[in-house]
Amino acid sequence: MKHTDVKEILLNPSLIGTDVTVCGWIRTSRDSKNMAFIELNDGTSLKHLQIVIDKSNFSDISDYMPGGTALKVIGTVVEGAVNNAVEVNAKEISVLGACPGDYPLQKKRCSLEFLRTIPHLRVRTNTFNAVLRVRSVAAAAIHRYFQSNNFVYINTPLLTASDCEGAGEVFKVTTIGYSDKYKSEEEYYADDFFGKKAGLSVSGQLEGEVAAMGLGKIYTFGPSFRAEKSNTQRHVAEFWHVEPEIAFAELDDVIEVAQSMIKYVISDVMEKCPQELDFFEKFMQKGLRNKLQNIIDNDFEVLDYTKAIELLQNADVKFQYPVEWGCDLQTEHERYITEKIFNKPVFVTNYPKEIKSFYMKQNPDGKTVAATDLLVPGVGEIIGGSQREEDLGKLLSAMEERGMSLSEYSDYIDLRKFGSVPHGGFGLGFERIIMYMTGIENIRDVQLYPRTVGNIR
Amino acid sequence: MKHTDVKEILLNPSLIGTDVTVCGWIRTSRDSKNMAFIELNDGTSLKHLQIVIDKSNFSDISDYMPGGTALKVIGTVVEGAVNNAVEVNAKEISVLGACPGDYPLQKKRCSLEFLRTIPHLRVRTNTFNAVLRVRSVAAAAIHRYFQSNNFVYINTPLLTASDCEGAGEVFKVTTIGYSDKYKSEEEYYADDFFGKKAGLSVSGQLEGEVAAMGLGKIYTFGPSFRAEKSNTQRHVAEFWHVEPEIAFAELDDVIEVAQSMIKYVISDVMEKCPQELDFFEKFMQKGLRNKLQNIIDNDFEVLDYTKAIELLQNADVKFQYPVEWGCDLQTEHERYITEKIFNKPVFVTNYPKEIKSFYMKQNPDGKTVAATDLLVPGVGEIIGGSQREEDLGKLLSAMEERGMSLSEYSDYIDLRKFGSVPHGGFGLGFERIIMYMTGIENIRDVQLYPRTVGNIR
Q1: Tell me, what DSSP letter sits at residue A340?
Q2: Nearest CA in chain B to A64
Q3: pLDDT band (50, 70, 90) for residue B230
């Protein structure tokens, strides 16, 4: 079906005066005495295209009015009366698909809560048109950022027999499922697809390190899974994860890449999605554009964990969770640091080793590890990263202290045995940065089909 | 660790005469009377950087010779003696990580079979450096192709309660796994994470259609899973899948997008990976470059299934599987069509409806559907696509004929109820096109960690 995208018609002034074929769905329509007007959208643009109908040329326009109806229109592109917008004066209209009166999106504005009950239709709203386009542009920007900096995109396996220890609860994968045939776990898994217990990856980091030891600089961008039963605005069972890993790098280098990547992605979205950001500024978060511009214009803060604890202890605020050296930072602490003290993103660095993972580089002080979390005003943690322990002996003792099985991690240990190098990386929760850029507060509203405990469709 | 990528040193002539810091692993080394030479690689380039050591400046070079050792070198970039290559004359060398004698990659050339036993180390070989870089460049090209044509990148869920009927065996996902606690399947799944049976997606198509009905043109690029126990060179349990879906499109439009995407990706890899293609031409497949150029230069064939059957019936070849109208094409038939008759990619179209899926558009002849498979010489099918049935009544009768549950597909059916439009799309097995571009014959060798029955790490 040869036709012209709505986006092209709206953005390309050379089409004015020409005839085009345009397809789309009716978003709104209004009928007056001699004329009728349809706001048509084909999904390529947040802005609709106005179709102008001179009723004297059409015997009956009632088919062309119900919201949700799919039309094909042939007409002439003309300059519109207002806002320099172009319009199409209809010559021929045909209905591709009618839309009956029980269409759930007839109402003018639906709440995000209501829209979650119709995930298969909510993509037809302005909000999801805008969110999903920002998501797409941001994903493309992430690829462009890494590719242009000599990173190799790799796909780490999602089906895995190991777990990235401590990262979260793991879904099991099986071809058996329920069965009363097996007398023991051993028998069951011996008969399963992989012949042993398998699960869904919570992080590609360990395999990312494997790849970085051959390709130098790599990044993953794919799904990760957490079987956590928490029901918060910030957690889902399936999310997209960006995990670069950099050979010949120390914590400073990891922080530098994280900061420049975030700035690049936000700049790119601001450049490519001006209408979408106007929409979010208007309907989701006042001050959104200033907030994003502020990110681009300023260096992020780098704050030692020990210093952060001091600042929190000296704060004239009563926290629900007490603050002392060695504790994990709670949301209230993170918000105080990013929103009250610095009002910008903050890399907190060098956490106590007891609250961080076995693979993180042990600092010379014997107490902390070269880890960093990036905390962002309004959203909280969006990045967690570290330099990795490259010393074989120190890695082994950290694993032994935690009672981990060395044989299960023999591949990982080999990386420290054969040509080990300083290296590090981070993980970005992709949905978190989309929430930040759109002002949308519930992670369920930045995914097409969110998965949470008890909720699958 | 400030340093310069090997790729930059090799490609940037302005560095000649300057001092650089370069890091990498020793690929090979040789020692002569007064001089020693190291081929250093940091993963950013298939080509190594030669480090030249004047032995009179170093007391003992034995640490700098074992393959696999990680070094940091400070030295001067100079023009090399041969092939216009640049070299680095070493001033200071330090060992970042030693590599003991039991390093499995000491041997000069390892077979692909052997390398499959050490997936965590094989990324350090030339072959996997080249394969994974081509894979990365091709992935970036796919994103660029779709983004520049107004497609929105979406992420369809991998955790799913439905299956894209007939596409393949499904892995189950559970937080329970083995248990002797439950008396029935109902009890078991009622207690599971999602409160019902869930599995891993075999295709994002159905959700892709949902998204296209809002966003017009979308593509997915993510993993799909098949729990098939077949052990072939072309199948794995986890693969990456590219699935565009296009609103206001008929079969011709789907074919046009598929062809132009394939040509774009191959052109881009030829432009950005000349060294890698030279390597594959030399070690994997003679004639590779000609084969790829041929793809770019010629239109693909479009061949009606009925005509294909005639051609096969008239062939002076004895096929193992007999050919008659209504049969599915076997590999031998596909190869005959693409390799013997046309010697180029062929879109076979309009298959008998009995051998295709319920969602495909029924042609007016009452016998065939508007489906297409793209068959490619040497690899076989790499794309399967179709126009989708947009007529509610026809869709429902196709589902009823197959005994499918309408209530499980109510979201999908709604798409035909509310503003239905002609649309279509296709699925590309990403690994298949990587195999085609590299000449690598086993799909296990174009993934970092392949997953097959009985095989997980």
Answers
A1: I
A2: B419
A3: confident
